[in-house]
Amino acid sequence: MAQHVAQPTATTPTLPATLPLKAIAPWAAFFGILMLVLLYFVGAEQGATAVVSGEGVHEWVHDARHLLGFPCH
Amino acid sequence: MNSATVRNLLVRGMLAGLGAGVLALIAAYFLGEPNVDRAIGFEEGHAPAHEHEVEIVSRSLQSTAGLATGVLIYGIAFGGIAALAYCVALGRVGRFGPRATALLLSGCALLAVYVVPFLKYPANPPAVGNGDTIGERTTLYFLMMVLSVLLAIAATILGKRLAPKLGTWYATVAAVAAFAVVIGLAFAFLPVVNEVPADFPATVLWRFRLSALAMQVILWGGFGLLFGELAERMLNPRPAKAEESRAMAAAPN
């Protein structure tokens, strides 16, 4: 019986508090851009544009680029 | 304290992204690679001397270490971005707990980041695509992706604005309908790309695209569940403790 009574309090959902946008902004600015740079190197480097010369990056991630849906060549 | 919460969620997002990336990699290797090989077989049989005559990276490296590098970095990067989006969405998109918010966000991300751009500009295997139009195709693909993500964010904000007037249900329906209409216009007006060679086997193309889609479903589904679990444990450790104390209270019986 005691278990039966205790259950509702344990499963009552507590709604999460919102995080202030000011606290998120610096992380979003720095890590957001870092993540986008990573995506650029996986998805587009040495395809349409190139930061590093040659074909090494393109050839290395060739299969991933095709299978992840990016235009490859 | 809030800044620390953001940092902890970001770290968990990148870890969950890595975990989901491993799952997607397994799918990519077993479902996707056979189709990549078939497409390359077609390419070698038909195309007169492809541009990569000198093999810089061998096929066996491309299909293993190269594939892993790409897919895992993709997982980590999108995991980090999704975690930042999650920090904003948490408690702002409706009455959802940490786990449900994670899965909801992850499902929306799958649609906005991948499925919507895929419907207009689907993934192509090797041998499909003219090397001369790579610039245009890359621009169009990223444009479609950015447009779809921005419209999804706009639709979410619209839904939130409409909710007090229309109620949650109709506000959500209206926001999704608005998203679909604008995306439909983009589909209609953006240029069509079709560079599939006339004699390319249709089944290989279909299976390649299905396997690419499967990878993304696994990636985002896995991310939603993994990240939701990590976020729930971090933000809401109380239920676990309550469980423990209940177990302890029940033990003497």
Describe what you observe in this structure.
The complex is a heterodimer of chains A (73) and B (253). Chain A is mainly alpha-helical and 73 residues long. Chain A has one domain. In chain A, 60% of the residues lie in helices and 0% in strands. With 253 residues, chain B is mostly helical. Chain B has two domains: 2-128 and 199-250, no CATH class; 130-195. Helices cover 79% and strands 0% of the residues of chain B. Chain B is built from seven helices and no strands. Chain B has helices at residues 2-46, 59-89, 98-120, 134-166, 168-189, 202-235, 238-250. Chain B is globular, with a radius of gyration of 22 Å. The chains are: A mainly alpha (73), B mainly alpha (253).
Primary descriptors:
heterodimer, A: 73 residues, mainly alpha, 4 helices, 60% helix, elongated, disordered N terminus, B: 253 residues, 2 domains, 7 helices, 79% helix, globular
Q: How many individual domains of chain B?
A: 2
Largest sheet of chain B: none
Termini of chain B, distance in Å? Answer: 41 Å
Share of residues in strands of chain A: under 5%
Secondary-structure content class of chain A:
mainly alpha
- Average pLDDT for all residues of chain A: 83
With helices defined by DSSP (H or I, 4 residues minimum), what is the helix count of chain A?
A: 4
Total domain units of chain A? 1
For the termini of chain A, the CA-CA separation is 67 Å
Shape of chain A: elongated
Please trace the helix and strand order of chain A, writing H or E for each element.
Answer: HHHH
Most extensive contact: A-B, 52 and 73 residues
Helix content of chain B: over 70%
Tell me the structural class of chain B: mainly alpha
Strand content of chain B: under 5%
Round the Cα radius of gyration of chain B to an integer and report it: 22 Å
Shape of chain B: globular
InterPro entries (chain A): CbtB_put
Protein name (chain A): CbtB-domain containing protein
Transmembrane segments (chain A): 24-43
Keywords (chain A): Membrane, Transmembrane, Transmembrane helix
